[in-house]
């Protein structure tokens, strides 16, 4: 339903908060248009306000009997990620065609590139989160997609015993985006979560004494 709605919308602004330099060299045409703050919006029957990236309310523009909507504000309401490729002068909606590894900027106390810890089932993943701590514990770390991506594909393996209540949580709203148990017998599993519009993720799971959490950063990615 959301994809159909997105396709039906005529969009005007590219990204809220962009500087005018983004448009340098583009084929702009000057027009006379009107802000139309009288138009109201509903999403699935519920009233919503269109806002820019700074949280300010924005109004649609009417030009030649057509209403143009700011794509950033509309995509936030629909839960569709929007980015701008300046080099190609192209708006990117939804999943990106190429995945972006979560390794860049990753930080946790169990982040390691030690070859003695990055190998799982005879494959060296080079860069991993490997929690081999002691005692029954919560194993967790943060990710910062900064609203740039639609999906997260996170690879996880439970070593020794199962990981219970493995959860991917929107840290700003405390909303659980994905939750499942991971058994040691499954091997390396891929967990998919919709992260459109999410700035910060809290990833956590319950680990038993003598067990470890193995997450290869090079094969876990945003899209």
TrEMBL record:
Give the source's domain of life in one word.
Bacteria
> Which InterPro entries does this chain map to?
Cu_amine_oxidase-like_N (IPR012854), Mao_N_sf (IPR036582)
One Pfam family here: Cu_amine_oxidN1
Q: Where is the Copper amine oxidase-like N-terminal domain?
A: 58-103
Q: What is this protein called?
A: Copper amine oxidase-like N-terminal domain-containing protein
